[in-house]
Design a protein that fits this description.
Blueprint (H helix, E strand, L loop, with lengths): L9 E5 L9 H11 L8 E6 L5 E8 L2 E8 L15 E4 L1 H8 L21
Length: 120
C-alpha cells in the first residue's frame, strides 16, 4: 500500500539539517553512503530541514521507494535533534511525540517496568 508505515521494522531520525530539495535518489544516497544503513530494508527514515516545519519520510516497499512530505501550517515546528551526521533509532511512542510537536525524550513519561527474574 502506498506509504503505509505501520509495518516498518525500525524508525530512524536523520539528525542535523537535510537539504529539503533532495529527491528520493538523494535521500537514498544519504542513508546508504553517508549513514551506512540499508535504505532498501523495511525501515522508515525521517529527514528535516533548517526551518523545522517540514519533514520527508523515505520508505521502501516491495516494488520501489515512497517519499512522503509533510509541511506544517501555522506556527508549528518539529523538535528535531541537530547532532549533525548522526542517525537515531526511535520507538513508535517517540515518533508519535515528535509528530505531535513534542520532544522525543519525555522525562515525566511513565517508563516500562523492568522485568526482574523470578526467584523461588
Amino acid at each position: 500500500m502506498l506509504g503505509d508505515i505501520t509495518g516498518v521494522n525500525s524508525i530512524y531520525i536523520v539528525c542535523g539539517y537535510t537539504d529539503m530539495r533532495k529527491s528520493i535518489d538523494g535521500l537514498i544516497s544519504i542513508v546508504d553512503d553517508k549513514l551506512h544503513l540499508n535504505a532498501s530494508g523495511n525501515d522508515l527514515f525521517l529527514f528535516c530541514g533548517r526551518r523545522n516545519d517540514r519533514i520527508k519520510a523515505l520508505i521502501h516497499e516491495s516494488d520501489g521507494f515512497v517519499l512522503l512530505y509533510k509541511k506544517l501550517t501555522g506556527e508549528g515546528r518539529y523538535r528535531w535533534p541537530r547532532n549533525a551526521d548522526e542517525v537515531k533509532s526511535v520507538t513508535w511512542k517517540q515518533f508519535q511525540w515528535l509528530m505531535d510537536g513534542l520532544e522525543m525524550e519525555q522525562p515525566k513519561a511513565i517508563k516500562p517496568e523492568k522485568v526482574l527474574p523470578k526467584t523461588f
